[in-house]
Amino acid sequence: MGAFVGEVILPALGLQAVNTRMDAQFHHLATRNGVMRCQEAPSDMRSSLAIAAEFRLTSGTKNFYIYFIEDEKPVSNRTKTQYDIQDLELLSPFSGSCHININNELSFFENIIEANKRLHQCTLNDKKIKVINLYMKKIPLGLMVQKKGMYRLNIRHIGSRSHNDGLATINEFSFEGLNFPTFQMCFLMPGATL
Predict the structure, then answer these.
(1) Lowest pLDDT segment from 23-32, 53-62, 105-114
(2) Is it the case that residue 83 has pLDDT exceeding 70?
(3) Distance of CA 32 to CAs 1, 49, 120, Å?
């Protein structure tokens, strides 16, 4: 969904990708197709069970709020991901580094989320543990497509706490040797403990 926001919605709003940051919050795994509703003010529909995810785009003084609202059509096809993550190294619990390949918005999001997931699985020594992306903060949208290639990603653990019979973590991401703003992601692992 984040890649769709960057590739389709951002240009439709006339925003310059280079100056835009995105926050995203995921309420549940989308099991149905749906629509993206975009508006200039937060919605009172946030409590609706049909909202699977919400996004905020910030560019200068402009803010746009985007809601993914599920409809009645079941998801018929999920994209098969081809991750390109190399040299993954766990340096401390939930922290580490790796090289990821960035070709477009989709590879940016998928490889970063998967690298973080693998560090969580390595920390807990459990390859089967479910790792769910809860939210992302301050994702710099425009820079990811200008910086195509293989880059070293550093993931620093900021904190963790118990959450709904599981463990929630927050990590900060940076790219080594690039003038690329840091951003954050929070993950939930149901049933996990430290």
Answers:
(1) 23-32
(2) yes
(3) 13, 12, 28
